[in-house]
Design brief:
Layout (H helix, E strand, L loop, with lengths): L1 H6 L2 E2 H6 L4 H9 L4 E4 L2 E3 L10 E5 L5 E7 L5 E7 L2 E7 L3 E7 L2
Antiparallel strand pairs: 1-3, 2-3, 4-5, 5-8, 6-7
């Protein structure tokens, strides 16, 4: 469980390579200790999954723009942290979200 918490999102085949059988993942999922986020992808139910699919830039007028992609087959909550505030959004499956933040 510590490995999964540290990684955030794991693939079943990576865990199998570490000697953890898929049956164990299924058991943890049935017990509510693990969530399946896609085919062969697992997270802890309370995990804040980070995303590498983000592009951000600063417009000439000072607004900040972030494009966030959700490649997962299910809706995903995304949290964008800025100095002094946090923005929470939920992205639908396989979607792209655009945030425009005034300076």
């Amino acid at each position: 469980m510590q490995y999964i918490r540290r990684k955030g999102i794991v693939r079943s085949r990576d865990l199998e390579a570490l000697g953890i059988p898929r049956e164990y993942l299924l058991r943890l999922r049935r017990q509510g200790k693990l969530s399946r986020t896609g085919r062969g992808l697992y997270t802890l139910p309370d995990a804040a999954v980070t995303c590498d699919n983000v592009l951000a830039f600063l417009n000439p007028d000072g607004t900040k723009v972030a494009l966030v992609r959700n490649e997962l087959p299910n809706a995903t909550r995304v949290q964008v942290q800025l100095p002094g505030r946090t923005i929470d959004i939920e992205l639908p499956p396989d979607s792209l979200g655009t945030l425009s933040i005034k300076a």
